[in-house]
Amino acid sequence: MIPQEVIDEIKSRTDVLEVVGDYVNLKKNGSNFRGYSPFNNERTPSFYVVPSKGFFKDFSSGKAGDAITFLMDAEGMSYVEAIKHLAKKYGIDIPEEEATDEELEARNERDSVFIVMKYAAEYFQKNLWKHEEGKSIGLTYLRERGFSDEIIETFSLGYSLDQWDGLMQSALKKGYQKEYLAKAGLIIQKEESNKEYDRFRGRVMFPVHNISGRVLAFGARVLGKADKQRNAAQPKYINSPETLIYHKSDVLYGLYQAKQYIRQEDNCYLVEGYTDVIALYQAGVRNAVASSGTSLTQEQIRLIGRYTQNVTVLFDSDPAGLKASFRGIDMILEGGLQVKAVTLPEGDDPDSLSRRMSATELQTYLKEHRADFISFKTQVYQREAEHDPIRQAELIREVVASIAKVPDPIQRQVYVKATSTQLEIDEQTLVTEMNKIHRQQARTSQRRDMLMEEETQSVPESELVAPKKDIANVQPSIYFKEREIIRVLVLYGQQPIQVQESEPATEGSEEALEIVKVYDYIYYELEDITIQTQTYAEIYQFYREQTLAGATVTEAWLVEHGSEEVKKEVIDLVVDHYVLSENWELLHEIFVTREQDILHQVIQRGILELKFAYLGQLMGEQRQKLKETTDEVDQFQILKNCQMLKQSQQEIAKVLGIVVG
Question: How confident is residue 220, by pLDDT bands cut at 50, 70 and 90?
Answer without folding.
Answer: very high
